[in-house]
Amino acid sequence: MKLIRFGLPGEEKPGVVTAAGMFDVSAFGEDFGERFFETNGLDRLAQWWAVNGKDCAPVPEGTRLGSPIQRPSKIICIGLNYADHARETNAQIPQEPIVFFKSTSSLVGPNDNLVIPKNSQKTDWEVELVVVIGKKASHVEEKDAMDYVAGYCLHNDYSERAFQLERGGQWVKGKSCDTFAPLGPWLVTKDEIGDINNVRLWLTVNGKMMQNGSTSDFIFNVPYVVSYLSQFMSLLPGDVISTGTPAGVGLGMNPQVFIKEGDVIELGIDGLGTSRQVAVAYK
């Protein structure tokens, strides 16, 4: 099953995507947030759709897509989770996952504009696989971790490198600017993806390929990351875990390259769709 949320910012409605197109499931009566996931919403929606899908209206072509989930309780990110990315940034290979948070106010739709932050000179791109938690997870063993996963999304973990690395403190300052977490187009349930630890992900800037990697290069794979994080905090239904980026970020280039007003960033993950952001200046 593929879930979407569509409509104006702050007014999104729930929908599903099938081979026949996108359909409005507002009549189901729930949005795709924490309560939906913790009450077995995916199964309930599938059962409802089997009976009522024929009566659901199509989503008009060109309608804006929002984040496929409501604002989660937290966005947790894993840094340097691909060996090639660690090497390009001259970082040591982590012995344990590097964990940081991204503000939930950075969440936007997959094709919304990227707003380059005020006073930014070093805004960078990062294509990432997101894992969405389906039920509360605390002290979960790795062998059981996938039982707690609802599905997956495409994410561009935008980063302002000066804010992140040159201003002291933790990385969160460079990760949390408004529009820095475009998510989607869809939430794809885990049954639709064969091996999530072996899918291609890519990103272009103005049509030039910058990142072209595979989750087979993970240092810490999805079950390990879910289990690891659950040792330190409860993962709540709808929580977002962004699992790191492969090589090809602007920070790692020589000379370094960063996003400018007017740049077009496109990205995708096999089975999870594509997204497109246009960079605009802060006003």
UniProtKB/TrEMBL annotation:
GO terms for molecular function: hydrolase activity. Residues 74-277 form the Fumarylacetoacetase-like C-terminal domain. Keywords: Hydrolase, Metal-binding. Gene3D superfamilies: Fumarylacetoacetase-like, C-terminal domain. Belongs to the FAH family. This is Fumarylacetoacetate hydrolase family protein. It comes from Chitinophaga defluvii.
